[in-house]
Amino acid sequence: MSGAISNDQAEAFLYQEAALLDEQRWKEWLELYLPDCKFWVPAWKQDHELVDDPDAGLSFIYYESRGGLEDRVWRAKSGTSVASIPLPRTCHQVTNVRCEQAASDRMLVRSAWSCHVFDLRASAQHTYFGHYTHLLAAEGGKLRIAEKKIVLLNDLITGFIDFYCV
Amino acid sequence: MDAVTRLRGLIIDDPQGKDFRVHRDVFRDPEVFDWEMRHIFEATWIFLGLESQVPAAHDYMTTFIGRHPVVVSRDDKGGLHCFINSCRHRGAKVCHRAFGNRKYHVCQYHGWSYDSSGCNVHLKDREQAAYPPSFDKDDHDLVKVRKFASYRGFLFGSLSDDVPSLEEHLGEARWFLDLVADQGEQGVECVPGRVVFRFRSNWKMQLENAVDPYHFTSTHASYIHILERRQKSAAADVPTSIYTNIRNSGIRRGSFAFAHGHAAMWGDTPSPQARALFPTYDSLVARHGEVRARWMFHTRNLSLFPNMQIAENASLQLRVMRPLSVGETEMAIWCMGPKGEAAEARRQRIRQYEDFFNPSGLATPDDVANYEDCQSGLAAESIEWQQCYARGFEASVAGADNFAEEIGLHPERSLIGPAELGDETAFHPAYREWLRLIEAGLRKEASSPQPPGKVAVKVTK
Questions:
Q1: What is the mean pLDDT of residues B428-438?
Q2: Pair (B318, B254) in one structural domain
Q3: Number of structural domains chain B divides into
Q4: Which domain holds residue B415?
Q5: Is the CB of residue A51 less than 8 Å from the CB of residue A121?
C-alpha cells in the first residue's frame, strides 16, 4: 500500500486491532505498531483536564517505541505475573470512527471505545471506556500505527489495567 | 464474650516467648472493620494531603477521615482549614471536586454559603425565616475537624481531641519525612496526574506490603525478568531502574519499628546511578551532609499508621489508603519529586514511576492480585492464624542498631540482614498501635453512658 488511506481501510484496521487484542493474538497485535510508535494513556490532572505533557505529568502508560509494549506482551504470557493468571476475557467495541487525512500517507482516526472485562480471578466484571486517537501510516504495503493515544474516561481503576483492557 | 476480650484474643504479642501472631478475623470480620473506623480512622491522626496541593488562596481538596468526607481549604490570608464536607442544613456536600478553587462554598440545595475558612456567611432568606431563638444559638459554620496540623507540608487531621501533638504522634518517623522533604531546595511536590484504584481486599494487606521485603523476588518476578530482558536488548528508550542487577547485588535490608504504629524499611540500592536524584548528589551532600545524602539514596519505605506510606525505591511514591469495607480498599497514589527538578530528571522519575508503581505498571498489579488472592483465601473461616509475623524475630534488636545510631534515631526495634531474610517484624508496631487504639476506644464506649457522637435527645412535654 502506498499513498492515500481510505476511510474504510482505516475503520477496518481499528476493528482488526480490537479483535487481535480480544483474541490474545498479541504478537500479531504488536506488528500493527511501527518500531518507533508512540503509545500513550495519559492520567487526568483535573476533572476535565488531561495530562498534556507526558514528561511533566503522569501517564498510565507512555512509550516512545514498541519495546515497552513488547515487555507487556511478554509479561502477560510469561506465567510470572500473578495479575495475568488467569488473563481476563475482554471484548473491545470501537465506534464513532472519524477520519482526517493528516498527510498523503497518514490518517488521523478518532473513535470511541469501550472494553468489557470479565475478571476470571474475581468472578467479576467491569467496563473501561474512552476515546482513541490513532495516527495511521501506510508503510511497506501495510497500514501501521505511528501513534495511539488512549483517553480513559473512567479512571477509577478496578484493581489494575494493562494494554489488553484499554 | 465482651468486645475487649474478643479484641485482645486477635493479637498475640509476647516478646518474652518470642511469639507474635495476628488472627485472620482482623482481615475479614465486618465488626472488626467497624472498630477500625470508629477507634482508629476516626480517632487518630489521618494523613490528608500536601500543603503544595492547595497552593493558592481559596484552593481546596477533598478527602476522607474514616467515613467522614472532609475539605482542606486555604483562606484568603493563606491559612489552611479542614472541615467536614457536609452542609449544616441538610447534610449535602458543599465541595464536589477532588481539587478546586472557590472563594465561597454555596450549598446548591438551599443556598447556605460558607467562606473558604468554612464560616457560614449567608443563610438564604434568614430574615423571613421565623426561626425560634434556639436556632440562633447554634453554630452554623462547617464543622472543623478537632485537630489539624502540618509537618513540613504534610497535612494531618484528627476527628478526636484525644491525640498527642502531631510531632509526638509522628515521633522519629519524622526523620524519614524530612529525608523526602529535603530533597528539593524548595521542598517536594506531587507530579500532576492523580491515579486512584480500588482492590477487593482489606486495607492492611497494603499496610503490611509496604514494609515487606520478602515478597519482592516472587511477586515481582516478571518485573525482574523484564529488567534482565532490557539489559540484553540494550534498547535505549526503555525506562532505567534502580532494581537493575538486583539478583547479583547482595543487598541488605533493614527495618526500624517506631512508636505509634509507624515503621520503615530500608536497603541498599542495586543501581543508584539510575535514581533521578543522582545528578544532584553533590549538592545534596553540600546541603545535608554525606550521611543524610547517602540515606536519600537508600531504598526507603515509610509506613505512617494508619493511612499514609511513602515508598522511595523504583521512583518516589506517596500512597493514601482509604478503607471502604472489610474487603475493599481505595488507594490514591502520587508520584513525588523535588520542586524545581531538572526536566530530564523529572522525565526519568515519571517513566520509572509508571514502569513500576501505577495500577497500569509492571509491579503494582501483581501486588494487588496477591492482596485479592489473600482476601479470597481468608474466606476459609476455620483457619485462625496467619503465619507471616515471625521472620526476622531472632535478628531484631531492642532499640537502635549501628544504622539507627548513624542517623541519631532511637527506634523501638531495629533489624538488619540480607534481603533474603525477608523481615516480618516491621509489621508488629502497626498491630500494637491497632490494638492500643481499638482497646482504648472500646473501653471508653463501655464506660460512657452514650455512644460517642450521639447526643441525648431531651423530650419535653
A1: 98
A2: yes
A3: 2
A4: 175-440
A5: no
ipTM over 0.85: yes
Work out the average pLDDT over B112-120. 98
List per-block mean pLDDT (blocks of 10 residues) for chain A, which spans 166 residues.
81 98 98 97 97 98 96 96 96 98 94 98 96 94 96 97 98
| Residue B311 included in any domain | yes
Claim to verify: residue B419 and residue B300 sit in the same structural domain? yes
Closest-CA distance, B287 to chain A, in angstroms, reads 26
pTM of the model: 0.95
Helix %, strand %, coil % for chain A, to 5?
25, 50, 30
Interface of A with B in 41-70 (CB under 8 A): 41-47, 51, 54-65, 67-68
- d(CA B343, CA B335) in angstroms, rounded, equals 15
pLDDT-based confidence at B236, cuts 50/70/90? Answer: low
CATH assignment at residue B93: 2.102.10.10
Helix (H, G, I), strand (E, B) or coil at B368: helix
Model pLDDT for residues B340-358, shown as the tens digit of each residue: 999 999 999 999 999 999 9
B232 lies within 8 A of chain A by CB: no
Q: Give the architecture (CATH level 2) of A7-165.
A: Roll (3.10)
All cell numbers assigned to B382: 476455620
Residue B347 belongs to what H/E stretch?
A: helix B343-356
B433: distance to nearest CA of chain A, Å?
A: 28
All cell numbers assigned to A101: 487525512
Task: Kindly state whether residue B300 falls inside one of the protein's structural domains.
Answer: yes
